[in-house]
Amino acid sequence: MGVQIPRKKRRVGLLTLLYRLSRLLPMGHRQKLKLYLDLEWIFDRLAMEASFKHYPPEEHPHRRFASRFLLRHLAPHMQVLDLGCAKGDMSDLLARHVGRVVGVDHDAAAIALATRRYQRPNLSFRHGDALQYLRDRGERFDVLVLSHILEHLDGPEAFLKQFSPHFTWFYIELPDFDKTYLNHYRLDLGSSLVYSDDDHVSEFDRNELEALLERTGLEVVDAEYRFGLQRLWCRRVAAPAVQ
Q1: Is residue 30 situated within a structural domain?
Q2: H/E/C letters for each residue in 128-184?
Q3: In angstroms, rounded to a whole number, what is the distance separating the alpha carbons of residues 167 and 158?
Q4: What is the CA radius of gyration of the chain?
Q5: Entry pTM
Q6: Which run of H or E residues covers position 222?
Q7: Coil/strand/helix, residue 90
Q8: In whole angstroms, what is the distance from residue 85 CA to residue 145 CA?
Q9: d(CA 30, CA 73)
Q10: Is 12 helix (H, G, I), strand (E, B) or coil?
Q11: N or C: which end of the chain has fewer CB within 10 A?
Q12: For the chain, what is the domain count?
């Protein structure tokens, strides 16, 4: 929801001060642009971190809009595997709307916390490797949830090819490099602050992500781009050879 605001804006003292300081800086246009891009990145990051302390997990805009998007596609009969479930926030949200959810993560402490925080008859958590879990248990799942996973991987294509044969539907959520033209300025200027998180190895633009999914036999059925995130609901249309 947008806002309606008066044509004549209220004067903001800090903005006036910074404009004046900008004119006094002994720097060229390129240097100023690079400086402001770095400052924008820093304050955007600080604001995002503060937002997660301000909102309870279920009320954060990221989670609310993810829920709205998912509810368009989830069905009560579905069996869901939430890979990299961390502290279980997404797993709990999913379990309210589907038949069964299993959250899997390598972080034993996170799994222990998730197990204590979220207790539903159709929700369980497992510590370990998700692919090994699938192979060992031989269980059938309809949906694989990859919420902020692919951007952390050195080989996302090989990863998806391993999991693709085990599922019909995939929910993928990750940062949107195209959320702002400022990221493309950063590329042009060689800025070091051109990532969303310190342990990301990929920042996908929209075309790049769709091409990756196509190569792994996934078809994008629905997509949404909000709050700097890409959300995609995908269907397996081809089963690539398991690596």
Answers
A1: no
A2: CCHHHHHHHHCCCCCEEEEECCHHHCCCHHHHHHHHHHHCCEEEEEEECHHHCCHHH
A3: 15
A4: 21
A5: 0.86
A6: strand 218-226
A7: helix
A8: 9
A9: 46
A10: coil
A11: N
A12: 1
